[in-house]
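The freezer alarm interrupted the setup, so I double-checked each line after restarting. Inputs confirmed:
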Amino acid sequence: MHALTVLPGRADSAQLDLLPEPTADGARVLLRALDIGVCGTDREILAGKYGTAPPGQKRLILGHESLGEVLRAPEGARFAAGDLAVAFVRRPDPVPCPACARGEWDMCKNGRYTERGIKERHGYAAEQYTVRPEFLVPVPAALRNVGVLVEPTSVVAKAWEQIERIGARATTAAQRVMVTGCGPIGLLAALLGRQRGLDVHVFDRHRDGLKPELARALGATYHCGDLDQLDLQADIVLECTGAPGVVIDAVRHLAPDGIVCLTGVSSGGRRIGVDVGRFNRELVLENGVVFGSVNANRRHYIAAVDALARADRAWLERLITRRVPLARWREAFTQHPEDVKTVLDFANSAHAY
Amino acid sequence: MHALTVLPGRADSAQLDLLPEPTADGARVLLRALDIGVCGTDREILAGKYGTAPPGQKRLILGHESLGEVLRAPEGARFAAGDLAVAFVRRPDPVPCPACARGEWDMCKNGRYTERGIKERHGYAAEQYTVRPEFLVPVPAALRNVGVLVEPTSVVAKAWEQIERIGARATTAAQRVMVTGCGPIGLLAALLGRQRGLDVHVFDRHRDGLKPELARALGATYHCGDLDQLDLQADIVLECTGAPGVVIDAVRHLAPDGIVCLTGVSSGGRRIGVDVGRFNRELVLENGVVFGSVNANRRHYIAAVDALARADRAWLERLITRRVPLARWREAFTQHPEDVKTVLDFANSAHAY
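Predicted 3D structure, all chains:
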């Protein structure tokens, strides 16, 4: 079978390999890949800046945003041939930390988790793969075209859950949300905010085009220009760019008792001038919270499937701006300004070899 | 009666005035001042950098950390002559915001709260003052010598409550706490951490002397030196210095899923070089929280009285490093390196004039 692999740590080492098909032992579900989403982490891995191969191996099969079709399932596994399913990314260490032991591997305390397609485990960018059924969430057939969005939506569902849990420290309810960044995470965060009935404002630098359109189609208000000059205070800020300047400006737009959720994984190494005294003073005098959220566990995948099932299907389909056949996989990793989510199309690619 | 007043906005304008004694209307409790604590906010007000006089008045009576003795109370007020009481600092606006309307003026959403001795209301640094009974907490007679610590302890009790509420977002319990800063807020934060049975580490720059002694006497581990070099990760960091460099370093000592609580009100206006990308990335990849906490409402004052009642009385008394008679009030506002809490002694001062 074909699988997209990299040599972790080496830039531009990605290639399409021919590997033996996996055999599902009695405990695993065998799936065929339909769609594989591409995200910033994949591009970091391709650039040689991130990622680790499984112990004893040199290459890593890429891909962690998946949608697969079950080919064969163990008896009693609640999956049958033909079912759609999305596999989780993270796995607890065999000797789990206290969080992983509770199934909350997204809150792993010792960093010894593994991640399929990222850290010490092969990913899903292969024509076939196997997964233990407890690491799979079923996806309704109606979500065939957009089920690949379950994984990024699970990250957003976790962020929203954490915002709500942290928000419970105060008794007054949030009303206004600002989302910075109009990529897939930003737009999905805006979707989940609208599904909660909140007044959602989306900020990005695009003056027009698809991204502002997608934000407005949700019933959100779209803003662009200089974030520092924007006259808007929000009870919740979802920062989805990871850009250092935006992270600092986001805190300036926080209303009293507000919460900033950081979701962007930025790269470090560059210092910028920050008035930390003011940052500290504003957070203290206004009871502000800034927190980071990463990954997702089972309940967030379930919440993600539910959120996508309740969303407008046509709107979700517009988020997938390019479907690249596997044979032309290189094109999927070059970014175009109008890209929201690029998907590697495995289902319709087999004949291309 | 004597009262310590300032002209807000003008440095070194403090003076001891002779003012008419207040008359308690039928709804207010009349108290005589016993002790008034001095804190950084008072020093900011004396420097002309903070504080607002009541509407239509030029001068502001100072003092927000109080311990008073009831002289006269309205009928049915649950206070009687001779009782000790501490008055709250903040008051909601007459048209309260949603938080203030719930009694949570510490979470005020519109900034229209007032504060006795700080913002638009006279303080308690007067031989007599009146307070509506709903803004008073009773203090057991046994706490006579340390009751002036109730207000700073209420700030710490709120910080701990918020840490615990925010901590409830995750299912694993915190074990190790780092407190940065060995002032009254830092030491009281360490006390409340020890009362929760946690492993408490206190950091400050003093190599020896009273502050390390007070930290160790709690059963906490004391650290000094270069915070950046300290090999310690904590589930909870209570940042009690407000120093910009310490605020940034504090985040580096956070364990996964950890919480930094900022309590120090620093002054802004100076930029320092910060690797915001790294700050953001670490918070995201480790689910970190940074939040600010200010002020306290009724339940936090009650928690503070309870915490002080359960603490070692001799230890608390050592926190009050100087008692300055009112006649020599200027001495109370100059800082000595060994100062923890300086108190203006009103009870034994009357004869000095």
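Quick read of the result. The longest strand of chain A covers residues 29-38.
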